[in-house]
């Protein structure tokens, strides 16, 4: 909308000549054209590596600027990035970071090929998607087939809810991976699960696990997941994948699968 574009232009002019300022990347609803009249403007301010290092030392990675200056309720939501940050994001960013660049546009840049770099951030190879499906099925089997059963047997309310929500999360992540859709975070899960093709009854079974994480609801959801994605994981394979992606993440220098 015009008010957001005016606010964005004013922000770009305010940072264009700052020392170390290299680019502004617009993301979020304004970049996608889905903003409301009172939506804020989300941007990445890309600075040189020296300025990024100084900001990192001061724990300054995000802030708000121009609050209420451009239209009622307006502000620029700024996150800091650098060329090294963007290059690292191509190789190992988590899904919410990658997804934040979907639909991004660049109103100002001194970085050659920045748009192509952004495209690389939001694109994952087919083999990565396939491995994610495999991993999330393993997550679903352990949380739904082992931890949830243990919780019911022990009458452990916390473990039951913990296992249920992790089962639901893993099933949703598997569905998104099958549709090659980046995960934007828990805030968006209930919406995203409805945007990808799934078997009949899958979303209803998923909702049942969220609402009532019991053994029977888990069995139905896991059955639909296995029949749909036809994964060849044996019980031992699933256990090893689960341990690799969770308990051994510290050893492998990775993060647990739920945070990919």
Care to describe what's here?
The protein has 13 helices and five strands. The chain has two domains: 2-121, Beta Polymerase, domain 2 (2-Layer Sandwich); 126-259, no CATH class. A five-stranded mixed sheet has the order 3-4-2-1-5. α10 (202-211) packs antiparallel against α11 (215-229). With 260 residues, the protein is of the alpha+beta class. The chain has helices at residues 2-15, 28-32, 49-57, 83-92, 95-99, 114-121, 126-154, 157-178, 189-192, 202-211, 215-229, 235-245, 249-252, and strands at 21-27, 41-47, 62-65, 76-81, 105-109. 56% of the residues lie in helices and 11% in strands.
Low-pLDDT runs: none
Q: Compute the gyration radius: what is it? A: 21 Å
**Percent in strands:** 5-15%
Number of separate structural domains: 2
Classify the secondary structure makeup into a structural class: alpha+beta
């Amino acid at each position: 909308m015009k008010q957001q574009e005016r606010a964005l232009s004013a922000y770009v002019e305010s940072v264009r000549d700052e020392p170390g300022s290299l680019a502004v990347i617009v993301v979020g609803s304004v970049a996608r054209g889905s903003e409301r009249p009172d939506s804020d403007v989300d941007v990445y301010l890309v600075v040189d590596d020296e300025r990024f290092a100084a900001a990192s030392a001061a724990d300054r990675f995000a802030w708000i600027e121009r609050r209420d200056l451009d239209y009622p309720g307006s502000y620029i939501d700024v996150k800091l990035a650098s060329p090294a940050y963007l290059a690292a994001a191509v190789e190992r960013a988590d899904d919410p970071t990658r997804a934040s660049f979907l639909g991004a546009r660049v109103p100002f840049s001194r970085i050659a090929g920045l748009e192509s770099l952004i495209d690389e951030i939001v694109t994952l190879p087919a083999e990565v998607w396939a491995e994610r499906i495999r991993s999330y099925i393993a997550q679903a089997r352990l949380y739904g087939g082992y931890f949830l059963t243990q919780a019911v047997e022990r009458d452990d309310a916390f473990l039951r809810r913990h296992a249920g929500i992790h089962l639901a999360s893993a099933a949703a992540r598997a569905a998104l991976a099958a549709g090659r859709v980046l995960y934007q975070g828990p805030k968006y899960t209930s919406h995203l699960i409805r945007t990808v093709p799934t078997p009949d009854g899958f979303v209803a079974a998923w909702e049942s696990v969220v609402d009532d994480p019991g053994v029977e609801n888990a069995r139905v959801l896991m059955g639909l997941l296995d029949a749909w994605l036809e994964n060849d994981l044996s019980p031992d394979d699933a256990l090893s994948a689960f341990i690799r992606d969770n308990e051994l993440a510290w050893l492998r220098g990775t993060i647990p699968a739920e945070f990919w």
